[in-house]
Amino acid sequence: MNGYNLIARYYLFFVKLxxxxxxxxxxxxxxxxxxxxxxxxxxxxxxGELLSFCLNQYPTTRITYVDSSSKMIxxxxxxxxxxxxxxxxxxCKSIFEWDTNQTFxxxxxxxxxxxxxxxxxxxxxxxxxxxxxxEGSLIVAxxxxxxxxxxxxxxxxxxxxxxxxxxxxxxxxxEFYALFAAEQLSIFKEKKLGLGPYQDxxxxxxxxxx
Length: 210
Ligand SMILES: C[S@@+](CC[C@H](N)C(=O)[O-])C[C@H]1O[C@@H](n2cnc3c(N)ncnc32)[C@H](O)[C@@H]1O
Description:
single chain; 210 residues; alpha/beta; Rossmann fold; binds S-adenosylmethionine
């Protein structure tokens, strides 16, 4: 999915224009000060907004940042202070090709499961489970499947646009609950966010190993 090199420059502008801060809020909802992760893995973090948040929120945590788009990585790197660079391992690779011996106590999948084919969604969750500490958490943020016509049209339009630039492998949202159940991940917490026409448009899950 190299489409992200094409859209990287405009991606955040588009997101803010359409959704305001909603997508950022849902990605960070469970990232509270009271958790103290030692090692975070961020997959598909995009232009680095979430990365900056994690660096500020957890000042001693080490972060591995895997994104397949060189442009997204370049833009994310620019946001990081020289001091913080030591804490980040940038990996410009597809998550399916990236390998590690490390384990993580927090893995973040921010608006990425909605990109991959069904088979790859399962593969990604299995990979995540394999590198997650026994007591660790996986946090997924994504769009929720709502019956409201406006929201269905909005999500449909996004898939149309993303498909046209080769930025997704699917045309509708995954069935998150079935996916997590099949991969034996327990939902520890979940929260929907969004108001007005965006009522409950996005959701986040904190998942643990069964
Ligand atoms: C929809 S964007 C989400 C960006 C960011 N998480 C956000 O919410 O603003 C998906 C991100 O996943 C990255 N990506 C796509 N396929 C990937 C893969 N196979 N491995 C790692 N990253 C990937 C893209 O480059 C892009 O940065």
